[in-house]
Specification:
The chain contains 30 helices and 34 strands. By secondary structure, the protein is of the alpha+beta class. Strands 8-7-6-11-10-9 form a six-stranded antiparallel β-sheet, with helices on both faces.
């Protein structure tokens, strides 16, 4: 420490160093001596002071005024006061009031004493402020508002405040109000607010002293106490940094007061500030007693309100017992306890059947994400084991009492305080109620209220369980009864499966179900109900081995349960089953024989419990019996149907000889007997080794199918059946690679069965049966039934062919006989015609000679000439008739030679022209050259065409058109001549069309009918 003065001058006494009053010596305004008290008052160090102007050190803001007073002091102005008070702000920002007494020592030297009189001033302001604050606190009616008003008021006075409450062996921070930046710094360092955190008070010396002596304690060094207080809740804090922060924020002194309510220690009241003095302790102690009095009143009111809430909650718990389901009851109980106990998140756990674990039964939305991670836990878990042994509730501080694995999810959700309350009935554990909130710890009185409610809840839960159990048993009996009724009311497998599935889905409260039947080593879907599995196609047919879950259930003869863990590990299975969370697959076993499987699934996060497992077992037994009965009936009915179809085919085969009718009926029967989409029949053309389509059951395809031709030399399914003489089964036609794929695609067949048609070991065709609805395995029973019908079809085809051959022979014989009779008749007519013609021609010669002689000898005119002409015409006509008769009786052989057709047709038109003109008929000759020159008898051709033209002219007495047309056409590479005669007349009547070539047939009044 520097000494005042200058070389050779007097020096102040060394006693100045030890004075409790601050002193400094200055020469020419420069400080050359300070004592420790001065430095402490100003919060400075000697190096910050020595050599500097005392005006700049002590009053930089009022330097002009101080310099003026300094000048007056040097001038020994009698009007200058001996001492005065001023407020000075220290470097840390604290405002202090100082009493200053300067003395002039001569030669521009001064000695100044400084006293801190801030406390004296505070005594005059603190007591009234505390008194007024105590009145405000007394007006509050809740513990929370009492503490909040007290904290706000003390903070306004520049005091840091901590109020802690005793809770059993622990102490809980009820109110922590820190002035300035220290509060946010502590929250950040601790990772949360201090309010609600608990600690062991006996570990803190100052609190232990207050608890023991029940009196106010003042400490002029509060830093160790505050450090212990913070470290009690978080031992791993940085002590050095915390201490530095506490000092910087002015928490150097503290007053700790007991809060006594109804004669018991309720908690602690601690205020801290750098400006506190021992004199303030009494004032703060008096204020703390006023706070305790207010807490007592508020506590009494809170107790009454709590009792009212408890009674109301008990009433609500009783009313919740009217819920018809356990789930509904638990949901209502959670609402009641959330309101009554002031928790932010709740969950109810129930004891499992083995009484070794607690299973999650209900949870509030705020706690769902956390509770899902703790769906179950054993009773011997360390943090709550004694709770379930002693059946007493326990409060848990998450960050202090739980291991990291259990702590982290709760902290992330902001839940730091937990209470676990056992649910028990007369000492028998039934479950647990878990409560959680973010800040405030659960107090003993709150745990007592929770215990009261938990007892009532346990009774209601037990009643609900008993009711649910009775209701479940009743539902089981009702379900089994309904299944028995279904088994007797319907014997159709498809209808039965859908009905029993609906019953199973309803009874087990699942989202969907499926039944598969075991057929030839594969599990085939028989029925689907509900929302899952969503894809029937993906589970339509499954292999029955250990690679599939259903196969495992069948092979191991046991129910396979699938949980969330399985579906999380097998996302494809979850997708195939429509987002299922839990599933069960039970085999349908009858006397060691597996008929199929029952699968049920649910989407919600509720596993199948033991009761549902027993219900599933009972359901599968009933379903198995009903399914076996229905399958037996259906099998018998199918056999009857098969026999009926076979008999029907036999009836058609034996009752008809029409091949087309037999084949069409057989195709329909084959499709029905094999339960296929279509059946088609092809017959073999032996000479060409070609199968031709003859009949199909596909609607609208009959005409097209008759055009189908399949060579035996080409690879095809029907050809393979014919060549091998054995059935050909195609389960899946996709990518078959054979020819005739277009025919398969046309009909959309996905599976095909081909059977040969054989008679006496000789192939005569093939039967092709197709299914367009699905791929399928053709069973031996289906092939056997189809083969029986195919054999009948083959016999029918053979019989029909024999009949056709016999009929054809009879027709040929009848035609030969008719031709023979006709020939004999014509021979007789020819002989008669020859005789008649011979006998008539001689008189005709006499008549012709006589007419020529008369015309030569006589000159005939008038009527005589007309009569002679008539006689001549009629004689000519009679001569022509005689000529026709002779031609019919003795037909001459045609003299064939190439003739120009145009000339022949022109001569016909010319010969018929007079008669045509007389009748108003036009002859239209159409003969475009060049025309071929066929080898014909020109006379006979001309006579035939002339007869046709004259017939046409005579058929149109009122006029018309006769077309005589000739042209060339080619057949087989050869040129041929085509001659047509057409008219616009009435035509030939249908009844005479088949007789036009009979001799002597005519519709005219005259003429022999030989033209």
């Amino acid at each position: 420490m520097s000494e005042p003065g200058k070389p050779g001058g007097p020096r102040p006494s060394a006693i100045l160093r030890d004075l409790t009053v601050g002193v400094f010596h200055a020469t020419d305004e420069r400080i050359d001596f300070v004592n420790e008290a001065f430095l402490r008052i100003f919060g400075l160090r000697d190096k910050d002071v020595l050599g500097r102007s005392f005006i700049e050190v002590t009053a930089p803001a009022d330097r002009d005024l101080v310099r003026q007073r300094y000048a007056s002091l040097l001038a020994q102005d009698a009007g200058l006061p001996a001492r005065y008070e001023r407020e000075v702000r220290r470097p840390d920002g604290t405002l202090v009031r100082l009493e200053i007494e300067p003395r002039h020592l001569g030669e521009r030297r001064v000695l100044v004493s400084v006293r801190d009189v801030t406390g004296r001033v505070r005594d005059t302001t603190l007591l009234p402020a505390l008194a007024e604050l105590a009145l405000r606190v007394q007006r509050e009616r809740t513990i929370g508002s009492v503490l909040q008003v007290a904290a706000t008021g003390l903070n306004a006075l520049g005091l840091h405040l901590v109020i802690a409450r005793r809770d059993g062996s622990r102490t809980v921070f009820e109110q922590v109000s820190v002035v300035g930046a220290l509060g946010s710094w502590l929250d950040q360092a601790l990772g949360r607010r201090l309010t609600g955190m608990g600690f062991e008070a006996r570990r803190l010396r100052l609190l232990s002293q207050v608890e023991r002596d029940r009196r106010v304690v003042f400490s002029d060094d509060s830093i160790p106490f505050l450090l212990d207080l913070c470290l009690a809740v978080k031992p791993d804090l940085d002590v050095a940094l915390l201490k530095e922060q506490l000092i910087a924020e002015g928490t150097g002194k503290c007053v700790v007061c007991p809060l006594t309510v109804e004669g018991d220690l309720w908690g602690f009241f601690a205020a801290a500030s750098a400006r506190l003095t021992s004199a303030d302790a009494a004032a703060l102690g008096l204020f703390a007693s006023k706070v305790a009095s207010a807490l007592e009143g508020a506590g009494f009111i809170a107790h009454l309100e709590r009792r009212n809430r408890e009674l109301a909650a008990v009433q609500e718990v009783a009313e919740a017992g009217t819920e018809s389901t356990l789930e509904g009851l638990l949901a209502r109980l959670l609402k009641v306890t959330t309101s009554a106990l002031g928790s932010e998140a709740e969950a109810i756990y129930l004891l499992d059947e083995k009484r070794s674990r607690l299973e999650l039964a209900a949870v509030t939305e705020h706690a769902r994400s956390v509770a899902e991670r703790f769906r179950s836990f054993p009773l011997d878990i360390e943090s709550v084991a004694q709770t379930f042994v002693k059946l007493r509730p326990v409060a848990i501080q998450v960050e202090a009492d739980l291991p990291p694995a259990a702590r982290e999810p709760l902290v992330r959700r902001g839940l730091r305080q937990i209470a676990v309350v056992p649910l028990h009935i007369k000492g028998r554990l039934a479950g647990a109620l878990a409560l959680a909130r973010s800040e405030r710890a659960f107090l003993d009185e709150e745990l007592a209220s929770a215990e009261l409610l938990a007892g009532q809840m346990a009774i209601q839960i037990e009643n609900a369980r008993l009711y649910a159990d009775a209701n479940r048993r009743l539902r089981l009996m009702s379900t089994l009864f309904d299944l028995a009724q279904i088994g007797t009311s319907t014997l159709e497998v498809k209808t039965l499966v859908q009905r029993v599935l609906a019953q199973a889905v309803s009874a087990l409260s699942v989202d969907g179900g499926a039944i598969h039947v075991l057929e030839e080593g594969k599990l085939t879907l028989a029925g689907l109900q509900g929302e899952v599995p969503h894809s029937a196609e993906s589970i339509h047919e499954l292999v029955c081995d250990k690679t599939t879950l259903l196969g495992r259930a069948v092979l191991e003869r046991r129910t396979v349960f699938l949980d969330e863990a399985f579906f999380e590990a097998n996302p494809k299975a979850r997708e195939r089953m429509g987002g299922t969370c839990f599933a069960a697959m039970a085999p349908l076993v009858l006397q060691e024989r597996v008929l199929g499987t029952l699968t049920v699934a649910r989407r919600d996060s509720r596993p199948f419990d033991a009761e549902e497992g027993r219900l599933l077992e009972a359901l599968t037994a009933q379903i198995t019996a009903a399914l076996e009965q229905a399958r037996s009936f259906e099998e018998e009915r199918r056999r009857v149907e098969d026999f009926r179809l076979i008999l029907e085919v036999g009836r058609v085969v034996t009752g008809s000889l029409d091949l087309h009718q037999i084949l069409d009926a057989s195709a329909e029967s084959l499709a029905r007997i094999t339960e296929a989409s279509a059946a088609s029949i092809l017959l073999l053309d032996p000479g060409r080794r070609v199968l031709r389509g003859v009949a199909t059951s596909v609607p609208g395809e009959a005409e097209h199918f008759r055009t189908v031709r399949i060579s035996l030399d080409e690879p095809s399914i029907p050809a393979q059946a014919v060549l091998t003489g054995c059935p050909v089964r195609i389960t899946d036609t996709q990518g078959l690679g054979m020819r005739r794929q277009a025919l398969i695609d046309r009909h959309g067949h996905r599976s095909i069965l081909a059977l040969p048609l054989t008679v006496r070991d000789q192939a005569i065709g093939a039967v092709v049966i197709g299914d367009s609805t699905r791929t399928r395995e053709w069973t031996d029973a289906q092939i056997e039934r189809a083969t029986v019908v195919a054999r009948q079809v083959a016999v029918a085809v053979a019989n029909a062919r024999l009949y056709e051959d016999l009929k054809r022979s009879y027709d040929q014989l009848a035609r030969a006989q008719e031709e023979l009779v006709k020939r004999e008749r014509l021979a007789a007519l020819g002989e008669l015609s020859a005789v008649v013609a011979h006998e008539v021609r001689n008189p005709l010669g006499v008549i012709f000679n006589s007419l020529r002689s008369l015309r030569r000898v006589l000159t005939v005119e008038g009527d005589a000439a007309m009569l002679l002409d008539i006689v001549g015409e009629e004689a000519d006509r009679l001569n022509r008739i005689v000529g026709d008769l002779l031609d019919f009786a003795r037909p001459s052989e045609p003299a064939l030679q190439p003739e120009p057709l145009g000339a022949v047709l022109a001569s016909v038109a010319e010969a018929a022209a007079p008669s045509a003109v007389a009748s108003g008929v036009t002859i239209d000759l159409q003969a475009e050259e060049p025309l071929p020159k066929p080898a014909v008898d020109a006379r006979m051709l001309r006579q035939a065409l002339l007869n046709l033209v004259m017939n046409a002219v005579q058929a149109m007495p009122r006029g018309g058109i006769v077309t005589l047309r000739a042209d060339e056409e080619r057949r087989g590479g050869l040129a041929r001549a085509r001659i047509e005669v057409a008219d616009t007349g009435p035509g030939i009547p249908p009844e005479l069309a088949e007789r036009v070539f009979e001799p002597f047939l005519t519709t005219k009044a005259t003429g022999p009918g030989l033209g």
